[in-house]
Amino acid sequence: MPDLKASTCLGAAVLALMAGTAQAGILPEGRSLENVTVAGEHFDVAVFRPASCQIRAILIVLAGKNRDSATYRDDAIPLARHECSLVFAPDFPMSRFPVQQYQRGGYPVSRQTVPAASYMKPLEQWTRSVSDEQRVPIILVGHSAGAQYLERVAAYAPGEESMTVIMNPSTYVEPETDTAVPYGFRNWPEPASLPDLRRYLARNIAVILGADDTETTSATYHSPAAAEQGRNRLERGQWAYAQAREQAEKLNVPFGWTITLVPATGHDASKMLASAELQDAIETAIRSASSR
């Protein structure tokens, strides 16, 4: 069982060690490479700043299993230009962030390791500091392995993001307490389990799936919990959304999730990042944030 006190201390250490690592400034227009150190971990971050427009949002983009963050940054540039948004694509190299740390977010928590999902909140704070954009909404966007990482962030370690976009992950955090962490909330430290589950259901989560992402994936071969979610990514995404909606009704909590399919698209990050469905979700999040 994860140690709640230890996890809280680790989170505090992340924030404390984050202090002073970033100075507010003006990011150059176009592509750049920035870096930040969080709790002793160095992150290279591929960045894009559109020219000649007033920034409307910060997009933090999480790459798939190949951890090709610069490619994801580049694929998000048309979206960034259209929405006049900054793009930050932090690199989580496989050598330091294997599957248990990246795809599973570092859960269940080891006493010797900071769960990787805990880095997102200070990374969000750093993007504001380094860009000097304190008021625009932060929107998290992940595809495949990056979407699995953001699933764990949303469930177990959320920050100040206005929306989390989950695209084509192989596994989900099930919104119930029968399935163990990192696929559900069983063994999550009590008495936090039910409040955190309610919060997860109420979060603004946009599930965007490729309508043709129907190949059987290897993730189901190694975990019975993952296999129970469905035969392929499309099926698992539809199942997870239906489960979450049903659970929100059962617990009588606001339900913040949406689901959208991208036609004629499989497990293709560039097509997903270029999709009208993602653009619509980003625009909706920006307008919603600006109206508050």
Automatic annotation (TrEMBL):
**InterPro entries linked:** AB_hydrolase_fold (IPR029058)
Q: Does the keyword Signal apply?
A: yes
Signal sequence region: 1-24
The reply to whether Signal figures as a keyword in the UniProt entry is yes
Q: Domain of life of the organism in this record?
A: Bacteria
Keywords from UniProt, A to Z, are: Signal
User: Record's Gene3D superfamilies?
Assistant: alpha/beta hydrolase
Name under which the protein is recorded: Hydrolase
* Species of the source: Gluconobacter vitians
- What lineage does UniProt assign to this protein's organism? Bacteria, Pseudomonadati, Pseudomonadota, Alphaproteobacteria, Acetobacterales
